[in-house]
Amino acid sequence: MTLVGRRDPALERCASGPLVVLTGAGLSTDSGIPDYRGPGAPARMPMTYQEFVSGPAAQQRYWARSHLGWSRMRRAEPNAGHRAVAALGADLVVTQNVDGLHEAAGTRDLVALHGRIADVVCLACRRTTPRATLQQRLEDANPGWAARHADVTVRPDGDVDLEETADFVVPACADCGGPLKPDVVFFGENVPKPRVERCYAAVEALAATGGTLLVAGSSLTVMSGLRFVRRAAQRGIDIVILNRGATRGDDLATHKVEAGTSEWLTALADVRLRAS
C-alpha cells in the first residue's frame, strides 16, 4: 500500500511521460454521487438492457426512478479529482462514468465509454435529444411526483430506490412516438466498437513510449474497463491502480494505491506540472 505524503513509487511512476487514465465511479463520490461497489456500498443491480426493452412496464419503472435521480445528479459539480485529471495532460482519459463531470471539468481527450446520462436516444428513429428537454416533459406529465418522493435514496447511475411507479407517465419520442432510452450503455448492452478501438489504441501506444496506464476509482468489476488493464499487462505496460478496496486488476498492477482519488490525483497533477 502506498500513501500520499511518504515516498510514493506510484506517484513517481506517473510523474512524467505518456499517460492513459481510466476512471470509475469512485472518482465521483466526492461530488456526492454514490459508488456501486465502494467500501460500505449496499449491493445493487441496475436495470439491464434486455429488461428495459422488454416493454412499457420496465420503461415506466426506469423513467420514474431516473426522473428523481437525475434531477439531483445534474446538480453535481466536478471535484478536485476531476479537475486534477483535466490538468494531467493525459494522452486519453477513458471514463466508465455517465455523469458528465469530466466534461464539466474541462477534460479534452476523453472517451465516455458508457455514454452520458445527459443525452436521450429514441430506440425507433435513433434521434438524440438533451435529457433536460425530456426532464421538463416528465415534470409536466407527472406534476407533484418529485415532491411526493423527495426522500428516496439516489443510486450512482442517476436513478433511485423506488418501487411505486405504476402511475408514472412516460412521454414517447416527440418525432416518431418511439420509446426513449438514456443514451448510455446498460448492463447487457455492448459498448460501441469505435469507442473500444480508440481506447485499445491509446493503451497499446504506451508500450512504445514507456507510458503508464492509471486506473482511478474503479473496482474493475465489469469487463468494459478490465479489458484495457489486461491489454496493458499483455503489452508489458506499467499499471497503477488508485482505488480504496480491492479490484479485479490488482494482480496485474505494477503499483496499487490505497488513497482518496481527489487527494492523490491532485498531488499527481502538481508533480506533473512541476516536471513539465
Structure description:
By secondary structure, the protein is of the alpha/beta class. Helices cover 36% and strands 15% of the residues. The protein contains 10 helices and 9 strands. It has helices spanning 9-14, 49-52, 56-73, 80-87, 101-105, 131-141, 145-148, 193-209, 223-234, 261-275; strands at 19-23, 92-95, 110-112, 115-122, 128-130, 180-184, 212-216, 238-242, 255-257. A 6-stranded parallel β-sheet has the order 3-2-1-7-8-9, sandwiched between helices. A 3-stranded antiparallel β-sheet has the order 5-4-6. A hairpin with a 5-residue loop joins strand 4 and strand 5 (128-130). Helix 4 runs parallel beside helix 10. The radius of gyration is 19 Å and the shape is elongated. The two termini are 27 Å apart. The relative contact order is 0.22. Mean pLDDT is 90; it is low at 1-5.
How much is the average pLDDT? 90
Strand content: 5-15%
Helix content: 25-40%
Task: Return residue spans where pLDDT drops below 50 for at least 5 consecutive residues.
Answer: 1-5
Number of helices: 10
Counting helices, strands and paired strands, the structural category is alpha/beta
Please summarize the sheet with the most strands: 6 strands, parallel
- List SSEs in N-to-C order: HEHHHEHEEEHHEHEHEEH
Distance from N terminus to C terminus (CA atoms, Å) equals: 27 Å
Number of strands: 9
Principal-axis shape equals elongated
Radius of gyration: 19 Å
| Strand adjacency order, main sheet | 3-2-1-7-8-9
Name a few traits of the molecule.
276 residues, alpha/beta, 10 helices, disordered N terminus
